[in-house]
Amino acid sequence: MIGREQADDLAFALLRVAAGIIVIPHGVSQLVGGNASFAQSALAQIGISPSALASYLIIYLELIGGVCLAVGFLSRIFAVALAVEMMWVAAIFWSNPAQLQDEFKPWEFPLVLAMVLLLIALYGSGPWSIDRFLRKRL
Questions:
Q1: What distance in Å separates the CA atoms of residue 107 and residue 101, rounded to the nearest whole number?
Q2: Residues 11, 119, 55, 131: is their CA dihedral positive or negative?
């Protein structure tokens, strides 16, 4: 039978892995699809025009940060960076009234994901992670 502490550790590991897996496809689709300017065009539709460098930073943050979150490597750093990005995305959608006419508001999911990422940033990678493995080895 699994103890309370092991159940908590497993639940947190699953939350961290899920958050990473949710973020990864956004970076992959933009990078592999040869559409590196997707972030630029999506933001331009709502009146924001980021530079190409900013678009690439977002793509690589989502791709590398998502993988690192999923495996538990440098999770706090990437969780904070991704949480800031998700709060920024939520704020952009929230401030665009044309997007708010549907029953499902487009800012809700990025906001919830940002809160999950902030939880990961506060808690760290957890015991089932590369960070913990490396800490024990050093």
A1: 12
A2: negative
54 occurs within a structural domain: yes
pLDDT tens readout for residues 35-66? 555 566 666 666 666 667 777 888 889 999 99
Number of domains observed in the structure of the chain = 1
Compute CA distances 44 → 2, 38, 55, 126, whole Å. Answer: 50, 10, 12, 38
Q: Classify residue 19 as exposed, middle or buried by CB count within 10 Å of its CB (0-12, 13-18, 19+).
A: buried
Residue at 138 is within a domain: no
The three-class DSSP label of residue 46 is coil
Q: What angle do CA 121, 41, 103 make, to 5 degrees?
A: 70
Number of H helices, E strands in the chain: 6, 0
At 80-123, the pLDDT tens digits run: 999 998 998 888 777 766 655 666 677 788 899 999 999 999 99
Task: Name the pTM for this structure.
Answer: 0.83
Residue type present at position 42: A
Q: Is residue 10 included in any domain, yes or no?
A: yes
Which residue range(s) make up the domain with 11? 4-133
